[in-house]
Amino acid sequence: MKKLCLFLMVLTFLFLQTGCWNSKDIQTMAYVTAIGMDYEDGKYITYVQVLNFANVSKTESTQLGKNIPVWIGRGEGATVTETFNAIYATSQLRVYWGHVKSIVCTDRFLKNGKRVKEAYDMVNRYREIRYNVLLYGTKELLSDIFQQKSILNLSPTDSLLDNPSQIYSQRSYITPHYGFKIISEINEPGQSAMLPSIALDKGEWTEDKQPKSMFRIDGAFYLKGSQSLGWMSEKELEGFRWLQEKLSRSPINIPDTKKPVAAIVMIEPKSKILPTIRNGKVYYTIKLKMDAYVDEMVEDLSTQDMQKLAEQVIEDQLRKTYEIGLSKKIDVLQLGERLYRNYPKKWHELNQDNDFNLDATSLDKVEVKVKLQHTGKYKARSN
């Protein structure tokens, strides 16, 4: 009898439970996938890109190619927190930040590096937002950036903005940069921070006969501390790519003229920057090693000739990028960071009165070694 009474009490208790009171259905939340930061007339302006993940999941299965609606929220305020609260006021649904994959800052916002640190500090303090968020700059309108769809009308989460890895596996120029890395570069002595610049290319793709814009990384913004150093185009930065550790695959023409004799794909470069001090002046040597393979041959060349031509092209590109950086007072190749690591006393001595100490003679030697792994299904002459 006692066991029966105990059983009835437990059963009654279970029926009285109301379940998880704070649980939310996925369709009743607004999922932010990207954040935009702008600054105008003394006010911060925040944009959010919101997706309905119920629609996204359907598209991935049975409705491939169907247009995915994108909602864009906007808030203004004297602080970044105030802009977020302005968005909450009209969102209608609970805003969830755990799916944020990218933050895009306008060129106006980037004119002051303190704004970048303040905005990232606020965003990174919130527990739902992850550390591995991609950070971009842009000259475009944020509303246009967040309305942009991927090819085949796939979800915006499958575009270059949120998922660049597939594109970079085939063509690497300016590698993706995460927010935590950029903030560390801003705070690091002897180093400038680089933000990839995302733009809309409106002339390369069409859907049937209708022109369609697509994302493109067209260059990079540079920051040092609270100072904005400027912007450089992808063409101007083509020499910098060889110093990026995560570069996986990048093509060149040999020679780099209007009439190349071959197209070579360079893979996984390994670089060293070695500062030396002679008569009180600092000189830098860059050593590069990388593998390569032939993508296309216009003329019959030997393996040795192609390697030498590739080495010369890469050296020329590095020196050209360095010279452009000099004209804009940007240490594009991050030479000063290596001096700070190897000779901190000398770095502090040089930076007492002037934080830019490079000139036309500072880049002394560029030593490039290319090893051609294979020439595809066709063989090349050995000599």
What does this structure look like?
The chain has helices at residues 2-16, 53-61, 80-90, 113-125, 142-147, 165-168, 179-187, 303-327, 335-342, 344-350; strands spanning 29-40, 43-51, 71-77, 94-96, 102-106, 134-138, 193-207, 210-224, 227-233, 250-254, 262-278, 281-297, 363-374. The protein is an alpha/beta fold and 383 residues long. It folds into two domains: 27-234, no CATH class; 237-383, GMP Synthetase, Chain A, domain 3 (2-Layer Sandwich). The strands form three sheets. Strands 1, 2, 3, 4, 5 and 6 form a six-stranded mixed β-sheet that branches. Helix 9 (335-342) packs across helix 10 (344-350).
Offer a few descriptive terms.
GMP Synthetase, Chain A, domain 3, alpha/beta, 2 domains, six-stranded mixed β-sheet
Task: Write a short abstract of this structure.
This protein has 383 residues and is α/β, with parallel strands linked by helices. It is built from ten helices and 13 strands.
